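Friendly challenge for the regulars: who can give me the structure tokens for this chain first? No prize, just bragging rights.
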Amino acid sequence: IKTFSTMMTKGVLGKLTDQQQRVMESIREQSLRLEHQIDKLINLGHLESDDYGQDREAFVLGELVNGLVAPFEQPARDRAIDLRFQCEVEAEDVTIHGDRADLRRACQALIENAVKFTPDGGAVEVSITEAKGGLRFSVRDTGIGIDPRYHRRIFEKFFQVEDPLTRH
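First reply, four minutes later:
Bragging rights claimed.
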């Protein structure tokens, strides 16, 4: 679906009318969204597997930090969201021990949610600071937040707040 919708939106199979173009772009966007959801399910399966955490290694923080917010810059610009990133430690001088891919995925999931649920014209601040002999990764946004009655459920698998104010 993704391949053919991409080919059609690029006009490889012939010129589309404006309405057809909009529909094909929507199909392509939805297939990308579905692909992203499938990737999340695969990653969740990885988290529950017996070999989770086996890919830990020592690496320089800069390898995690470089390009961390890049995938969210254009979506933030499109919605006039002020996206800021600040690393208060010298990233090239700090070595951390962990699963590089899983740490990147976790950090980017938090940034993605912040951008997604921040209203147009809002702000998202991402920072890395020193804290109690370690590092703290923090994401703050001007979104509406999660209703306190759902706080105890945020770590449940597949849980999403079913509030019409947060769902488009």
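Residues 18-48 form the longest helix (31 residues). The beta strands are 57-60, 82-87, 95-98, 123-131, 134-141. Your move, everyone else.
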